[in-house]
Amino acid sequence: MNVVQGVINVFSDSINVLLKLLLVIVLTLMFLINPKPYAQTFIRCFPGFYRRRARQILARCATGLGNWTVAALIEMAFIALLSAIGLWALQVPLVLAHAVIAGLLNFIPNIGPTLSVVLPMSVALLDAPWKAIAVLILYVVIQNIENYWLMPTVMAKQVALLPAFTLIAQIFFASLFGALGLLMAIPLMVVVKTWVEEAVFKDILDEWRRRPSSIKGQVKMLAFSRLK
Question: At what angle do helices 2-33 and 35-43 cross, to 10 degrees?
Answer without folding.
Answer: 90
